[in-house]
Amino acid sequence: MELVASPLLPEGFKVPSSRWEHGSTRLRRLLAEKPYVFGPGCYDPHSAQLVMYYGFDAVYFSGYSFAIGHLGTTDMDLYSSVEIADGVRRTIMALRKFQLTMATGDPEKGDKPKHLEIPPVVADMDVGYGNMFNVQRTTELYVQTGVAAAHIEDQVMPKRCGHIAGKALVSADEMVGKLRMMRHVAEDCGNRDFIIIARTDGVSAVDAPETKRGLELAIDRGLRYLDSGYPDLLWCEFPTAARGPVEEFHEAIRKRFPDARFGFNYSSSFKWQNEKNPLTFDELGQMGVGFLFITLAMQHAAGYGMSKLLQGLKEQEQGGYIDFQREEWAEGEDLPTKSHHLFTGVPYHHLVGEAFADGGRFGKKVDQGLHHEHVV
């Protein structure tokens, strides 16, 4: 990792030089170098920063997770393109800021700088939030905000989560038109590396222009999308975690396109713990899966953690929170959020305040004189 100075850091501190590599370019390189790229599903800056802290390849910005975190509702096109594009924008900017704040550590408390790579962000585009011209606008928003890749699906609008019944498909021609628009918008915006993922919900669609249904329809759709030459990756949404249809789909596509790469949703909708022989990440990589993700990974983790804390508070009052803190601050635990001041960059802001604004109330000398055993 090459470290270089940044004008947004005080003298002596550095960040990885890849800070200035576009996410699309980085993701293309990772796809070429690695058996697969993995990205846990996030929905806000905080969850994405944690993914970055632990060094994952990519951040997947999940539409379903965004619907829950932004509106407290389900995945049925209930937010607009502008809303999710703004959520993605704030997340990408937060990752860039997080790299700076972690690069200073906390010199006053002996916390060393942590040099983190900025993971490329892959964003959900649902069905493009309308017709081909809505896709044009959404792609412009995504490309200009720094999104590395986006996926679009072939459902009618309003779409449904791939694991909710009642899905219907637009024509394959309409989908290809949307893919073409995405590609040309990205090129017009100057990002030829922008990665497009075409998704088909053909396996479990109840309505489509074709007479074919099920896996046969999904394979036919997938081949038509790759025939267009526009998508970089192909993703088929499956209704269960069964390995048979997954293997059959990928094998059928690769008969015509031997070098095809795929996206795969290791979906939170499936009870993987009940599968006798669950698909592994390595197996999926061998099938040609290039981008692997868990849609609602961080949302489920947040829900679990918050529920456990709230149960403790309900049953034990203050004791529930004290017990929680004992676990959070246990020796040897690498939990970056336990000091919300460090995680959000208070030391960075004090250091920069002193360097850029001549100190005063912005400088690192601002100190309440409280011992670290009593405050974070």
Key features?
376 residues; two-stranded antiparallel sheet; 10 strands; 44% helix; globular
How would you summarize the topology of this molecule?
Layout: E1 3-5, E2 14-16, H1 23-33, E3 37-42, H2 45-53, E4 59-61, H3 63-71, H4 81-104, E5 121-124, H5 132-145, E6 149-153, H6 172-188, E7 195-200, H7 214-228, E8 233-236, H8 243-256, E9 262-265, H9 281-286, E10 289-294, H10 297-316, H11 318-328, H12 340-344, H13 346-357
Parallel strand pairs: 3-4, 3-10, 4-5, 5-6, 6-7, 7-8, 8-9, 9-10
Antiparallel strand pairs: 1-2
Helix pairs in contact: 2-4, 4-5, 4-13, 5-6, 6-7, 7-8, 10-11
The helix count comes to 13
Gyration radius, rounded:
23 Å
List SSEs in N-to-C order: EEHEHEHHEHEHEHEHEHEHHHH
- What general outline do the C-alpha atoms trace? globular
Poorly predicted runs of 5 or more residues: none
Q: How are the strands of the largest sheet arranged?
A: 3-4-5-6-7-8-9-10
* CATH topology-level fold name: TIM Barrel
Mean pLDDT: 93
Biggest sheet details: 8 strands, parallel, barrel
First-residue to last-residue Cα separation? 30 Å
Q: β content, as a range? A: 5-15%
From the structure provided, what is the oligomeric state, counting identical versus distinct chains?
A: single chain
**The CATH class:** Alpha Beta
Percent helix among the residues? Answer: 40-55%
What is the strand tally? 10
CATH architecture: Alpha-Beta Barrel
Number of domains: 1
Class by alpha and beta content: alpha/beta
How would you explain this protein's 3D organization?
The chain has 376 residues and is of the alpha/beta class. It has a single domain (3-302), classed as Phosphoenolpyruvate-binding domains (TIM Barrel, Alpha-Beta Barrel). 44% of the residues lie in helices and 12% in strands. It is built from 13 helices and ten strands. It has helices spanning 23-33, 45-53, 63-71, 81-104, 132-145, 172-188, 214-228, 243-256, 281-286, 297-316, 318-328, 340-344, 346-357, and strands at 3-5, 14-16, 37-42, 59-61, 121-124, 149-153, 195-200, 233-236, 262-265, 289-294. The protein has an eight-stranded parallel β-barrel, surrounded by eight helices. Strand 3, helix 2 (45-53) and strand 4 form a beta-alpha-beta unit.
